[in-house]
Amino acid sequence: MIARRFRLPALLAASLVAYSGVAVAQQPAASSPASAETQAGDKVLARVNGATITERDLALAAEELSDRLPAMPEAQRRDYLVGYLIDIRLGSAAAQAEKLDESAGFAGRLAYARDKVLVDEYLAKVARDAATDEAGRKLYEETIKNLTPEDEVRARHILVPDEAAAKAVAERLKKGEDFAALATELSKDPGSAKEGGDLGYFTRDRMVPEFSEIAFKLDPGKVSDPVKSQFGWHVIKVEDRRQKPVPTYEEVKDQIETFIVQRAQQEAVLALREKAKIERLDKPAGAEKGDAPASGNGAADAAKPAAPAKK
User: For bias kind Basic and acidic residues, which ranges apply (predicted)?
Assistant: First the structure.
């Protein structure tokens, strides 16, 4: 592989600078914790000593365990989650029987959990309100107006381990052998060899500097002399040059939506801080207002990343 790094589409590059480093908050289902009373249409899946387990409970458990659930068929996944909820009902009843819910420690944990669920719900509402199609298209149009056209080349290469091998490749090409066939036969780049060395279109910064410097100097159809990089020795053939096309709105819609949600959640939390009277007794007086976490958005940063909530 010779690509140095991938980057965010140019469409969002300028806008993201001001808001980089902010995590997207978890978007939970807009609900309160399940109780024995079920809402109309909420299918009951099981009962544990009379306490119901419903489809809504199942959805909440699936959300909580989303990154910890192993891959399994849907039926097996549902069975696992119902079993998990049964154990929770049993364990909860056992804890209450021993009056653990009356301890000071439990009250504190419950208050913390309630606050955490509420802030997740608040940030989910902020996301729903912000992530409209109108807002997304407006950001798209504003951003593409400021795009600087970027040059791209489409090139093939043959990667070999040493200079002698690269010179031998160059000689065979000068004698008229097909570049793609030689790449398939000789190239040590596993990603492109099977494609006849084809790397597709790329901008200058997508490749290591030694490779890009030569590739962007060649005219279409021309073949380079051997070029050394950290990956070995390359012989490069440029197939085409063009200006990078602007991505369509649909192509970057998800990234735009994520950015809008990140920005809205950050601004919402910072606005709450600005309006509040915050007293940090662990810090000198007067340090409270500007003493946000490193990213400026403690609540949103602490939440688990997820896609914005849909209306």
Answer: 280-291
Q: What does the alpha-carbon distance between residue 18 and residue 79 come to, in Å, rounded to a whole number?
A: 45
Half-sphere exposure in the Cβ direction for 55 (13 Å, CA): 5
Q: Give residue 82's identity as a one-letter amino acid code.
A: V
In CATH terms, 151-243 corresponds, of 3.40.50.2000, 3.10.50.40, 3.40.309.10, 3.30.160.60, to: 3.10.50.40
pTM: 0.61
Tell me the one-letter amino acid at 284: P
User: Which residues, other chains included, contact 54 with Cβ-Cβ below 8 Å and sequence gap of 6+?
Assistant: 34, 38, 42, 43, 44, 45
Q: Each residue of 58-115: pLDDT tens digit? A: 999 999 998 888 889 999 999 999 999 999 999 999 999 999 999 989 999 999 999 9
Instruction: Report yes or no: 126 and 264 within 8 Å, Cβ to Cβ.
Output: yes
The type of residue at 285 is A
Tell me if residue 238 falls in helix, strand or coil: strand
Residue 61 to residues 29, 55, 71, 114: CA-CA distances in angstroms? 11, 10, 16, 16
CA–CA dist 159, 162 (Å, integer) = 9
